[in-house]
Specification:
Oligomer: heterodimer
Number of strands of chain A: 1
Number of helices of chain A: 13
CATH class of one domain in chain B: Alpha Beta
Radius of gyration of chain A: 23 Å
Radius of gyration of chain B: 26 Å
Shape of chain B: globular
Distance between the termini of chain B: 51 Å
Number of strands of chain B: 18
Order of helices and strands of chain A: HEHHHHHHHHHHHH
CATH architecture of one domain in chain B: 3-Layer(aba) Sandwich
Structural class of chain A: mainly alpha
Helix content of chain A: 55-70%
CATH topology of one domain in chain B: Rossmann fold
């Protein structure tokens, strides 16, 4: 900068700050308490509310940067599940002749891949988010819970784009959607909460031990094959359904298939999913809040 | 009682663990190995106690609304830790603090900018990170962009910005935050000296609006000009809390003759202590503020417990922002000293000091000419150079008048050489 610009800048800085309205910030005083220890169940969830705009901005940012500088842009939201379904349809549907509860295999696979893709991405982001945002965590205060929460909201966009494609595919196969389809929304929320529940555990561990980052892809892959995505729940012996359903994604995916293609509604896996998810998420919140206090020190 | 308090801190402490213990392991493998080792180890052996380090220890103070308080102390005294606790980035190990009012922390500007996003998108993102609402950013957006002087690039991704543009935009957002309480760390604030000056002006403007300011700086000029009160931290504890002048005196006397933090003596080296440093003006009186162009006399007393053969005595001058300005060397100036032993005194008379107006600090070091190794390095006196025009934000390190020739133009008058005239001209 040359000298005159410099002086001008300084003058303008001073002027513009002094011109700011004075009363705008002191209408009500904010009081902040800083203390070293808190109760185990003092989750300070009410502290999230004033930061709702930041949550929105973080989600928006994630969406904005997702497909930026990718030539195909948002088309990737379609291509990714489409290719996965295509591969599954060829290998498991065509060659392996996997049973699919009477639903055309591509629809069957798509109805599993769609919520799974969402869940996997949400889990990945809520577990890795704190490390990705390390710079923020080290230098700015905000409720750290925003990071995993933002992580489960962003991928919902891809989910809805995929859902439109699935509906198109259903029309091609002559399956008309029913009112069951409305259940997709609460099921999506349930999948998001499952991802958050696990992310609340893995995220803080990841802050301390980066091993999580390398373990996560395997965990997600194993978890996928432990979920009824390429095969139906009916393939599992009935006596073992309860055990199998301890995987909370079983209820979500089965519920999702019912929402898309109908059939008999099986409440058991869904109830187990809600129960397992509730325990995980309450424990996860306590764990996260407990670990949160040292994030900036160790990240 | 707490009606007029902006910040009230009680017994704040922050402990860090060093070395062994859980916190020393950076991957699970280390932890598992350490766990396995501890199983096979004899339990009778004393487990090595973890090394603990209190970055901050039992710090209490009250700051009234509208008060400007400087936080001073050597590096590692806990200044930054204190700001981080107050801005809630780190949690204290002990103690509590109560903060009333909207808090803005200018600890590092631009944290949270995303490279892929445009300037416009980043203004909203950064605004939200600093705690501004969308409506607030909306209403100030034009002012922010205007102030940053990068209106033409506001829709360009910031990854294409120069670092200067980046900092300007980030700072513009921060400058429009209007906090009730400002935590300002001059040391950590990124950017060049110009930018740090901007930070200072920003703080001054807030001050006039009645904001409370907590200001960490090494620049005693800045502290003096802004703060009526200083808190002097020493090894994590409050060593002094009171009027600025007394606090600075205490601090400066503690700062004198501190071993340079980067100097690590090797065993077997001759031991020399720098026992005193005096700064004298042309009239022979001790002083710490010199006028531009004045000659300084630097008097160094030493105690050489071992004889040093052919020493090279160096006196370095560092500006407050740690720019190394110059070093005088006895060898370079052709001074042959056969050896030094026991206690003695060296005097250096500088040429007229043409350094720009700022605060400076001396570093005294002695090298053995033959081995080339340094045997002592001591940070010494601080001094200020005074000039109405030549400041480091616009005039660099030093100023010497040059000869100008102008063609196809008529000179208004003969070139002016006096500094008073230079002041009038600019």
């Amino acid at each position: 900068m040359t000298n005159p610009t410099d002086l001008q800048t300084l003058n303008r800085l001073t002027a513009s700050i002094e011109n700011l309205r004075d009363g705008s910030h002191s209408a009500h005083s904010v009081v902040t308490q800083i203390r070293p220890t808190k109760g185990l169940f003092d989750l300070e969830l009410e502290g999230l509310w004033p930061y709702r705009e930041l949550l929105g901005v973080l989600v928006k940012r994630d969406i904005q940067i997702l497909y930026r500088q990718a030539a195909l842009g948002i088309a990737w939201a379609i291509l990714q599940p489409a290719f996965t379904v295509l591969i599954f349809a060829i290998i498991f549907g065509h060659f392996a002749k996997m049973p699919s509860d009477g639903i055309p295999y591509p629809i069957f696979a798509f109805a599993g891949v769609l919520p799974w893709t969402y869940f996997a991405e949400a889990l990945r982001r809520s577990s890795n988010g704190l490390v990705t945002e390390a710079e923020l965590v080290r230098k700015v205060y905000f409720p750290r819970l925003l990071v995993p929460i933002a992580g489960i909201i962003g991928p919902a966009l891809d989910f809805f784009v995929g859902l439109v494609i699935l509906l198109g595919l259903m029309l091609i196969y002559g399956i008309s959607p029913t009112w069951n389809l409305l259940a997709v929304v609460p099921l999506l929320a349930l999948a998001g909460l499952q991802a958050l529940a696990v992310g609340l555990w893995l995220g803080p561990i990841n802050v301390r031990f980066r091993d999580i980052k390398y373990t996560l892809p395997f965990l997600i892959q194993i978890w996928m094959y432990a979920s009824p995505i390429v095969y139906p729940l009916s393939l599992i012996p009935k006596d073992w359904h309860w055990l199998y359903s301890l995987n909370p994604m079983v209820g979500v995916i089965e519920g999702f298939r019912w929402a898309i293609a109908g059939g008999t509604f099986n409440a058991q896996p869904l109830l187990i999913s809600v129960a397992v998810g509730s325990v995980l998420i309450v424990g996860g919140l306590v764990f996260f809040k407990h670990m949160e206090r040292t994030f900036a020190d160790v990240i | 009682m707490t009606k007029n308090l902006a910040i009230s801190a009680r017994g704040l402490g922050k402990r860090y663990r060093l070395g062994s213990g859980l916190s020393g392991h950076d991957s699970l493998r280390d932890l598992i190995q350490a766990g396995a080792r501890s199983i096979f180890r004899q339990p009778s052996k004393d487990p090595k106690p973890r090394e603990e380090f209190w970055a901050l220890n039992d710090v209490s103070f009250d700051i009234e609304k509208g008060e400007n308080v400087g936080i001073i102390g050597l590096n590692g005294a806990g200044k930054s830790t204190l700001l981080k606790i107050l801005s809630r980035i780190v949690t204290p190990t002990t103690g509590t603090a109560r903060i009333e009012g909207r808090l803005g922390a200018l600890i590092e500007v631009g944290t949270g900018f995303h490279q892929e996003l445009t300037g416009r998108e980043n203004v909203y993102l950064y605004g939200a990170i600093l705690g501004m609402s969308r409506r607030e950013v909306d209403s100030k957006f034009d002012a922010i962009v205007d102030f940053s002087e990068i209106a033409d690039f506001i829709d360009t991704p910031v990854k294409r910005y120069s670092s200067g543009m980046y900092v300007r935009l980030a700072f513009s957002v921060a400058a429009h935050l209007e906090p009730d309480i400002l935590l300002l760390d001059e040391v950590l604030a990124v950017g060049d000296f110009t930018f740090q000056r901007k930070c200072m002006d920003f703080a001054h403007a807030l001050e006039r609006r009645g904001a409370t300011i907590l200001f960490v700086s090494h620049n005693m000029f800045s502290i003096k000009s802004m703060c009526q009160r200083v808190i002097y931290l020493k090894k994590g504890k409050v060593a002094y809390d009171g009027p600025t002048d007394e606090g600075l005196k205490l601090y400066e006397s503690d700062c004198r003759l501190a071993a340079a933090p980067w100097f690590h003596p090797e065993p077997g080296m001759p031991v020399v202590d720098i026992t005193d440093i005096e700064l004298l003006g042309e009239d022979g009186q001790r002083k710490s503020v010199f006028d531009f162009g004045e000659r300084m006399t630097i008097r160094v007393r030493y105690d050489a417990r071992d004889t040093v053969v052919e020493p090279d005595i160096r006196i370095g001058v560092n500006r407050s922002d740690e720019v190394h300005c110059c070093t005088f060397s006895s060898v370079a100036d052709g001074m042959q000293i056969a050896s030094i032993s026991k206690d003695g005194m060296i005097e250096l008379v500088t040429p007229p000091v043409k350094l720009v107006s700022d605060s400076y600090r001396l570093t005294i070091s002695i090298r053995e000419r033959r081995h080339g190794r340094m045997i002592v390095a001591t940070l010494g006196e601080s001094f200020h150079v005074r000039h109405p025009v030549f400041a480091s934000n616009a005039f660099g390190v030093f100023n010497e008048p040059a000869e100008w020739k102008v063609k196809n133009s008529s000179l208004a008058s003969a070139p002016r050489r006096s500094y008073a005239a230079a002041k009038d001209a600019i």
